[in-house]
């Protein structure tokens, strides 16, 4: 659906990436009155977002900058609790961000008088489907403009090279991970990398320039210990961070990135039925999952763990396909909440050169721990801390 012919204001989700900036240029040239919404979901320093906003205001457009780090961190906590991963075990950080953006920004658009909303995602891709599904569920009164399915937009910008020329010409601040041949999508939970070079499956993964993380060979010589506390089946502290998910996610990201705990290189099955290579950084979630795995091992009986894994697979697909609000996903989350809602524990990890090893742990378990060697070879402990 293209821009309206009248003066209806359009809300544009503005990431600072090449395609969304090009959409801003296109709408400005039509002209169609657009307001840019820059969401801080932990993708970069606030100073970079403020610089982007300033460049758009100089361009002559309206801009709002919104702090959504708490909402993004809350969904990241859900990704871990429900182990909502996709092909190759990578975390659904991009799909989660789309859920946060539509949930949190569309009410602001309505309040500002917007009658439509737009995004810069490629036509026919995963994110176009995600925005369409969440938009229909959360903000059905705001029709979606999908520029890269619009003949006018495609005529103005037939390729990424022409997009880059326009963005540079107008002095707009471009995300450093986005250009004519590559793009990144980042938030507090992780980063996805795509490029023309990396789409070739023969390209070595080492050609990637990670945004946050180090390769294992570049990490410190000495290991680092980090202690993760779980309460009621959720992270409550990471080395003194406290229970705020923004704080513990940031702390986990720092440790994981510093020690090379991050890489997922996968050929993923996409919503539209194709496969495509993607490379993902999620250092915090990768680190925390090592500890969460041990809590699940000690805290669930075999039947409970088997059910958890099957439900987690359902939720991984739901987040990837933008079905997080549908009944099956609600039911799966409710069931996992019953399984893990009372699990408490403390796990200390030793982190070194791409490996996070459990050093020690204390978990309040529901399953009796076998202590045959410590009790004469013929006894079982009662349900107790492991």
Mind explaining what this structure looks like?
By secondary structure, the chain is α/β, with parallel strands linked by helices. The protein has a domain at 9-187: 3-Layer(aba) Sandwich (Rossmann fold), CATH 3.40.50.620. The protein has eleven helices and 13 strands. It has helices spanning 18-29, 46-59, 69-81, 93-111, 126-138, 151-156, 160-169, 245-258, 283-299, 302-320, 327-340; strands spanning 9-13, 34-40, 62-67, 114-118, 144-145, 182-187, 190-195, 224-231, 234-238, 263-269, 275-281, 344-352, 355-364. The chain has a five-stranded parallel sheet with strand order 3-2-1-4-5, sandwiched between helices. Strands 6-7-11-10 form a four-stranded antiparallel sheet. Strands 9-8-12-13 form a four-stranded antiparallel sheet, with helices on one face. A hairpin with a 2-residue loop joins strand 6 and strand 7 (190-195). Helix 4 packs across helix 5 (126-138). The chain is globular, with a radius of gyration of 23 Å. The model has no long low-confidence stretch (mean pLDDT 93). Its EC number is 6.3.4.5.
